[in-house]
Design goal:
mainly alpha; 20 helices
């Protein structure tokens, strides 16, 4: 009973705070829209915690919450040490190389930031998981909001489509609402998307600063994504700065990256760009899970990557098939994949007359190339369907909104009414 009252109280309080913080923006959500969107996110966040507690022994999400209680006590008992843990002091070991120190620091920092953020929430929640989930939703809600306003400013005629997909697409909202690093990663990805777009257009220093903060967040919470984001940002900058045809620039930059990647497999091991991908895949293959897809072990050669490509694409773009899904989470993943392809079908058959103009926008191409790249990277490295659907949630949302902006929804409605 106390938990329910606390969840409702903090939901109402933080929704009102969101309204106050955004009501003067040029693109904003009404109070009714905020109540619905934040309410849905809080429900998903609490459902996430319940499902993993009830069926998966708590998993990492409850472990993070337990760790926050320890951090909460340390915050009062050893405040200096509590702050020092955010610095690379503990990562420095005699004899380690600089690269090793940075790597250890980044790995530790992800957990420290998450634990300490929850520890601050514990000032209000006393360590209650579900109340912490509401506060965590307040933070990660900004990822949805920034993505929404960025797209509305670029294509205002599709506002309702963005609102429904960004705030209510079940699969993405579920995986981006749990107390895990994914929601914070989405926070920084949306921050980067919004402000790199502003900086590329207007070269304003504050936007550059916010973009660097976004890059830092990626480095902390999923450093491997920087290898996918950097080519996107380079192509984006070239297209805007020099007024080149965006699609040609993006295609050229990614073609060069592919050639460099394939060519590096002929070089000595320390220069082989495929080696980290192979290592990450083998680490996943050594793990045990209830369900896993077939995935051929990679070798650090261009031929091996080409051979495994069909498996990787199938696992991440098509599976799980609805008939092979077992358990509620896999059924939700299969339904999300089915919806993804249905929306792509609508985008093709009922595309707007100006759909080609959509793909002349550097921001749209950035979302498209990053989304597809992340899908393929996940397909190459992850054999577990549960992990795949969680890791691809951000890219899935980006690709969905691109498809949504290309659909002529008026024609779709007319076709439905005509059949009736």
């Amino acid at each position: 009973m106390i938990t329910t009252i606390g969840v409702v109280f903090y939901y109402l309080l933080l929704t009102w705070l969101l309204y106050l913080l955004t009501k003067r923006a040029d693109v904003r959500l009404s109070l009714k829209e905020l109540v619905l969107a934040m309410g849905y996110k809080v429900v998903m966040a609490c459902a996430y915690g319940y499902i993993f507690y009830r069926f998966y022994n708590g998993d990492d999400t409850w472990a993070f919450n337990r760790g926050s209680v320890i951090e909460y006590e340390k915050m009062f008992e050893e405040p200096v040490k509590w702050l020092q843990e955010l610095l690379p002091i503990d990562a420095i070991n005699e004899g380690d190389s600089f690269a090793s120190i940075i790597r250890i620091y980044i790995i530790d920092l992800e957990h420290y930031v998450l634990h300490k953020l929850l520890a601050v929430f514990n000032l209000f929640t006393r360590g209650n998981y579900y109340m912490n989930a509401v506060w965590f939703s307040f933070v990660t809600f900004w990822g949805h909001y920034w993505l929404f306003i960025t797209l509305v400013r670029a294509f205002p005629s599709r506002r309702n489509v963005y609102f429904l997909l960004i705030f209510f697409f079940p699969s993405a909202v579920f995986w981006l609402s749990g107390i895990r690093a994914d929601g914070l990663l989405f926070f920084f990805m949306s921050l980067l998307l919004q402000h790199f777009h502003n900086w590329a257009q207007h070269r304003r220093r504050p936007s550059l600063v916010y973009s660097l903060i976004g890059f830092t967040g990626l480095l902390i919470f999923r450093d491997a994504l920087l290898l996918l984001v950097l080519p996107v940002c380079i192509a984006w900058f070239i297209a805007v700065r020099y007024g080149k045809e965006p699609l040609q620039v993006f295609a050229t930059v990614f073609a060069v990256c592919l050639v460099l990647f394939a060519g590096s497999t002929l070089l000595p091991e320390k220069f082989n760009l495929a080696r980290p991908v192979v290592q990450r895949q083998h680490e996943f293959l050594e793990l045990h899970g209830n369900t896993r897809f077939d995935l051929t072990p990679l070798q650090a050669t261009a031929g091996s990557f080409l051979k495994v490509l069909p498996e990787a694409v199938c696992n991440v773009f098509v599976r799980p098939f609805i008939w092979e899904a077992s358990g509620m989470l896999q059924v939700m993943a299969a339904a999300g994949t089915l919806f993804f392809w249905m929306l792509l079908g609508l985008a093709w058959w009922f595309r707007v007359a100006w759909w080609r103009e959509v793909f002349r926008k550097p921001m749209v191409l950035a979302m498209l190339f990053f989304g597809v790249s992340l899908y393929v990277f996940i397909g190459y490295t992850v054999p577990f369907p549960g992990a795949i659907v969680r890791y691809k949630a951000i890219a899935e949302l980006w690709l969905l909104v691109i498809a949504g902006m290309c659909v002529d929804w008026k024609r779709v409605r007319e076709r439905i009414y005509y059949k009736k």
